[in-house]
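User
Class, as today's exercise, I want you to study this protein, comparing sequence with structure tokens, and judge whether sequence predicts the tokens.
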Amino acid sequence: MSDLSYFEKLEEPRRSIAHAVHEKVAAIGPDLVQRVRWGMPGFTGKKDIATVSGAGKGANAHINLQLFMGAHLDNSAGLIEGTGKHMRNIKFYILEDVDRPGVEEAIRAAIAYDQENNA
């Protein structure tokens, strides 16, 4: 189990959303190593796969699922955002966003990418 104390610094509803995102990744990737990366709970396979973090303020406050190799994943659902060379994010504004179509597929794709592209 990862150190989830970072989430306790977040105000509701972001705290609950962060826990739900973390639980979803953990359920989809039960063999991933859970560790703290940059002070945030994250997941590692052969290399870093994802972290869960709070971002934004006020009406823009949300949770990011940062996908370390998100730029290399299929984004046909349009959920993966960002312009980084490798890292991209999925944003979660409300708890129901965790179960949006495409979220589980993106997480599975990130895990598969890690397994297939890292020796």
